[in-house]
Design brief:
two-stranded antiparallel sheet, mainly alpha, 2 strands
């Protein structure tokens, strides 16, 4: 006896439905509009890591780990820029923080099998944090003149958007309405 899954709705139509469902989150929430590009990157990651429900075991713990180190890197860079001063202080703050934070970050990945197996999610968390930070793709809430407050909100927003992206991946598969087909051998 063999079994396979068959889609009742083809993947291209399920993708179109998923995008249709996600669009209101980027148009109608005012200052809380979702940067869907973050969500879509993690949606693709969902499929790159197997396209099944079990991907949460890698994405949920690994992505915030990467984003956390992006936040640490930026926070240290801000502190160092204040110490360095001058026209290129932000640049030199990032350079020095780079050589402090990144070796620690990379060395910690193999310390837990989830981070090691979820390396794609770890690095996506780090790079998505940086992308959200440098594009300021966050709602303007709180003390936006405080660079550490911004870093905090970028971390939160990156993780929330990433988790929504995981949901979109799951939804995409669910919208194909997969049907399990079993061939029975008659003896």
């Amino acid at each position: 006896m063999t079994s396979e899954k068959r889609e009742r709705v083809s993947l291209p139509w399920a993708v179109a439905l998923t995008v249709f469902i996600s669009l209101p989150f980027t148009f109608f929430l005012g200052k809380y509009n979702f940067p869907l590009w973050v969500c879509f990157i993690v949606w693709a990651e969902y499929f790159a890591l197997g396209g099944n429900l079990d991907t949460w075991k890698l994405i949920i713990p690994s992505l915030p780990f990467g984003a956390f180190f992006g936040a640490v890197w930026c926070a240290l860079a801000v502190a160092l820029a204040d110490l360095i001063g001058g026209q290129y202080a932000a640049f030199w703050g990032l350079v020095v923080a780079n050589f402090i934070v990144l070796p620690i970050f990379i060395a910690l990945i193999p310390r837990w099998h989830i981070w090691e197996k979820g390396t794609l999610a770890v690095f996506n968390g780090f790079t998505l944090f940086l992308a959200v930070y440098f594009t300021r793709s966050i709602p303007s809430v709180g003390m936006m003149d405080n660079p550490y407050w911004i870093i905090f909100w970028v971390f939160i927003w990156t993780v929330v958007m990433a988790y929504f992206g995981w949901f979109l991946g799951w939804l995409n598969v669910t919208l194909t309405f997969p049907l399990k087909i079993t061939d029975r051998k008659i003896d």
